Amino acid sequence: MDLEYHYQDLYETSIKKIKADDYQIDTLIHDPTDKRFGITLLIRPSEEVKHNIQKFLKHLKTIDPNQYYYENSDIHITVMSIISCYNGFNLDQIDISKYIEVIKKAS
Question: What is the pLDDT of residues 79-107, one digit of tens each?
Fold first, then answer.
């Protein structure tokens, strides 16, 4: 897969949708009663990396202070969504050891 093409296409498609008001806002994102769960494989960077990210974000805040910026506790790299979040998902529904086994083989 040509990643440069993929992300350029994603950008262009997204811009068109935003300009056409063809998008959805997650109204449950801050809802304390939100019961959607799933599994995501992510990486948490080191404190040194997070410090450098915060230095960069500090510069961005001077340009656009109203943008949302991650706190260190939230900084992560999403590797992949394994099971997309949905209402009613519970770890008891799957054999988590099989997922761990496959991920270990891939690394």
Answer: 999 999 999 999 999 999 999 999 899 87
Cα–Cα distances in angstroms (integers) from residue 52 to residues 44, 45, 66, 70, in the given order: 14, 11, 21, 13
Structure-token pair, residue 31: 């809802």
CA separation, residue 26 to residues 13, 23, 39 (Å): 19, 10, 18
pTM of the model: 0.65
CB-CB contact of 41 with 79 (8 Å): yes
Tokens matching residue 43: 């990486």
| DSSP string across the chain | --HHHHHHHHHHHHHHHHHTT-----TTTT-TT--EEEEEEEEPPPHHHHHHHHHHHHHHHHH-TTS----GGG--EEEEEEEEEEET--GGGS-HHHHHHHHHHH-
- The sign of the CA dihedral 77, 83, 84, 86 is negative
